[in-house]
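User: Can you write out an input/output pair for a complex, sequences first and structure second?

Assistant: Here is one pair. Inputs:
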Amino acid sequence: MKGPVIKGIQLDLISEDMLDNMTSMEKVRLILDEVRNGKILVLEKGLTPSEQTKLIELTMTEIAQDDFAGIEIESYPVKQSDTFFNKLLGKTSLKTRLTVIGPAAQLKTIKKDRDLISALVSP
Amino acid sequence: MGIIKRLGMNFSWLKKIFKKKTARIGIYGPPNAGKTTLANRIIRDWTGDAMGSVSHIPHETRRARRREDVTIKSNGSSVMLDIIDTPGLATKIDFHDFMQFGLSEDESKRRAKEATEGVIEAVKWLDELDGVILVMDATEDPYTQVNVTVIGNMEARKLPLLIAANKIDLPNSSPARIHSAFPQHPLVPISALEGQNIDLLYKEIADHFG
């Protein structure tokens, strides 16, 4: 006997390790393919600023009237990682943070601040 | 001919040394933040001309516009800028949103298509800039993805960024909320529409992009 069929929206949580093993283009492609299939993605590490602009750019090329209106993406501002060695070398590296991405038609941000993202997912 | 060409190259090399550098500054922000209103005010104040048309319908600016050699003077210092007014950045563009403003379906679809191209153009311009004036609507939540992305890009490139907290003429504006969100960057509360604090903005532009 089969159990009840669960209907809903698929939520994929992608680990930092998986993201570290992907190139920028692979990440952007994966995100767009999955979001176009109606999935919501949570990236543990987030995207670098240049990956964010790549994603915006590619999203714009894929927007199709009556089919795909774009993405909702929410991430926290990047943090500057000022380690002792970075300071010594005069470097600042940017630390990306958790990011939520989904289809614009289904994911809506209610509230966002420095350390909280509150979103509504609709079927 | 070859010698002249070579000489020409030498002249351009010399020109680069002696010519006063013009900083290329992009005006960025989400749709309807007041980018073109600000660009118009700057251009009008310093050249007597205008940059582009403004509208309450989002994505009115769908092509980047560039105005070269705009000299801004403030407190005895002056800075020469190329100013690029960019289309509003967005991660979604739904033609139905334009229909709510009374545009026909065909017109809305055309505007949406042009808006997507405008966003791509604005993103491409980021690679060509020496600095950014990020226009934020001070009545809105500052933690939008557009703001986070523009600020992140400028920080990664170590390029100067000035935040113009616009629409302070509106009663529910809160430049303080923007400052607490991005305290690491200079901020000037302004009304591009009414000209409030615009001299202060020119001073900051001269200080940061000079």
